[in-house]
Design a protein that fits this description.
The chain is an alpha/beta fold. It contains seven helices and seven strands, in the order H-E-E-H-E-H-H-E-H-E-H-E-E-H. GO terms for molecular function: antioxidant activity; oxidoreductase activity. Keywords: Membrane, Redox-active center, Transmembrane, Transmembrane helix.
């Protein structure tokens, strides 16, 4: 009887320890990432051809998403992004995707195969620097009309939190 009680206590202790360790790691990871308070203009190649810049792509609210074709989490959030585009696009939301694939050809194929309707730029150092050079994907930035970053998600975006921010910025 005592042996099973000790085993249960050991498991509970291990789970609590792992929870604290994960929380501490997560907090340290977020501290290392240096997000900008304001997004400065940057120019990059559009994966469909030509160039574009942040200033011409932004909306009343802008959702900037760092992505790549090989990233499972990036693919997982596409249905949410498409839903946001349909729901909030007519109200002033612009989605700007920055693809971190090695080549524009791969990025273009990804955009076409996933039927992504918004602008997708191919990454460059200026674009990533303007976004704080996060070094991870996916990362999503909710930016207001004055280019101030209102919210950042690392990993698959938090749908409820981003929806709340978009509603707030778009006056709903």
């Amino acid at each position: 009887m005592r042996s099973s009680t000790y085993k249960i206590l050991a498991w509970v202790g291990a789970i609590i320890f792992l929870g604290f360790a994960f929380y501490a790691f997560e907090a340290k990871s977020r501290q290392r990432l240096n997000y900008p308070e304001t997004v400065v203009n940057f120019t990059a190649d559009d994966v469909m051809g030509g160039k574009s810049d942040y200033a011409s792509e932004k909306g009343t609210a802008t959702l900037i998403v760092l992505t790549a074709s090989w990233c499972p989490s990036c693919r997982a959030e596409l249905p949410i992004l498409k839903q946001f585009n349909e729901e909030f696009g007519p109200k002033g939301l612009k989605i700007l995707m920055i693809d971190e694939d090695d080549s524009k050809k791969v990025a273009r194929k990804y955009k076409r195969s996933m039927d992504i309707p918004w602008t997708m730029l191919h990454w460059n150092y200026d674009a990533l620097k303007a976004l704080g050079s996060p070094g991870v994907i996916p990362v999503s930035y909710v930016v207001d009309k004055d280019d101030k970053v209102q919210h950042v998600d690392v990993g698959v975006l938090n749908e409820l939190r981003v929806r709340h921010e978009l509603k707030r910025l778009l006056g709903q």
